[in-house]
Amino acid sequence: MANETLPPLKFTLSEFAGSLGDFGTIIPLILAVALVSDVNPRYILLFFGIWFILTGLYYRLPIPLEPMKAIAVIVISGSIGSGEIAAAGIILGILFLILGYGRFFAIIAKYVPESVVRGIQLGLALLLFKASADFVIKDSFFFILGLVIILAFLIIVHYRHVPDLSSICVIAVGVVGGIILHGIPPTSLIPPPQLVIPLTSDFPSALSTLVLPQVVLTIANAILATSLLTQDLFRQDVPPKRLSTTIGLMNITSVPFGGFPMCHGAGGLAGQYRYGARTGGASIIAGVIFIVLALFFTSPQVLSIVAVGVLGALLVFVGIEMGRHSLKTDSFVITGIIGLLALFFSMTVAFIAGMVLVYVFGKFRPKAAHDGPAS
To answer: Which of 130, 170, 262, 270 could connect to 322 by a Cys-Cys bridge, CB 3.0–4.6 Å?
Structure first.
């Protein structure tokens, strides 16, 4: 991927709108993790901000960052401490650095069919719809208001050819609603990050509880599906090994200092693109927003400044964008089965079942060795 072929950085209103496109995924996960564990959300936000800026400068495309979802869900549902989280981040950082610098992804991409990757995309779309349904229950008024704003912009953009600023308006309405409901969160300067040193006993526990469930999801969605969607949206080849390398770097440098395990994500890419992001400028804008929140606002209260209903409205249209691209499959049956298994069981189960279906019942022939999945 030669730098001269990439678009220049832009900082337009459309890029600003696109920078908010994945907040509906990021903010609820960070808030939930912060409320049930001993991690400090300000450091999570700080490192998200730093790495959003770095990835924007490096890729010059709106390659997103998200909390590692399997780890986040396990932390939210169980009593996982900062030591185990740090151990998981170190293990994953080393693992994806190794995968990124070797020929591993050329082999993985050769033997993973496109229908399986598209199935992961479909599963993610269905999970986004499911998550949006939860927001309807929690905050139906702002959910419906957010939908109305987005639909209104769809009509205006179609007939007037103006930038789609729906995400800016939706987030603005959500902030006003959050302040009305919860008040303005307190402010204070953030103290310097402190090194979190895992105990020896944290590593085997983190490996079995956090790392193994996350690895398959990261390879399938954060790397293979993101690489494929980048080709769909931008006609740019971002090889899986490159995405693996940045995932490795940001985890090994951030999680030991209080960050949370991070990865890229096809859903985040679809969300940012849907709301206007076309260059790395959107990532840089998102990074600045997260750093400001980290530096000046205290406790998880800052994340409640946005009414959760509007985040659910954003997720609906991100799910539509992701689902649309999942239909570019070479096997609707395989892709559909994987999507449903991801919805009702897990991404890991869906991925493994899809591979079994393809190789046992299908006639899949491995692709020629290549650093990225076929477009």
So the answer is: 270
Instruction: Give the Cα separation of 4 and 9 in Å (integer).
Output: 12
Distance, CA of 34 to CA of 45 (rounded, Å): 11
With a cut of 60, say whether residue 55 has pLDDT above it: yes
Q: Which amino acid is at 244?
A: S
Residue 281 or 118, more confident: 281
Task: Name the burial class of residue 358, with classes exposed (0-12), middle (13-18) and buried (19+) by CB atoms within 10 angstroms of its CB.
Answer: buried
Nearest-angstrom CA–CA distance, 88 and 205: 9
Spatial distance between the Cα atoms of 196 and 256, rounded to a whole number of angstroms = 5
What gap in Å lies between CA 2 and CA 230, rounded to an integer? 15
If you search the block for the tokens 């897990």, which residue do you land on? 346
The dihedral through the CA atoms of 125, 127, 133, 139 has a sign that is: negative
Q: Which own/partner pairs from 1-5 qualify as long-range (CB within 8 Å, at least 24 positions apart)? A: 1/236, 1/237, 1/238, 1/239, 1/242, 3/60, 5/236
pTM of the model: 0.79
- Quick one: pLDDT at residue 315? 79
Q: What is the pLDDT of residues 96-138, one digit of tens each?
A: 999 998 888 888 878 888 888 888 888 878 887 887 787 778 8
Chain center to CA of 194: 26
Alpha-carbon distance of 299 to 40, in angstroms, equals 7
Q: CA nearest 22: which of 223, 353, 311, 290?
A: 311
Cβ–Cβ under 8 Å, residues 294 and 187: no
| pLDDT single digits (tens) 161-175 | 777 788 888 888 888
CA-wise closest residue to 193 among 291, 103, 102, 323:
291
For residue 375, what pLDDT band results from cuts at 50, 70 and 90? very low
List all residues 6 or more positions away from 332 whose beta carbon is below 8 Å from its beta carbon. none
CA-CA distance, 157 to 150, in Å (whole number)?
10
**Token pair 């991690």 in the structure block, residue:** 39
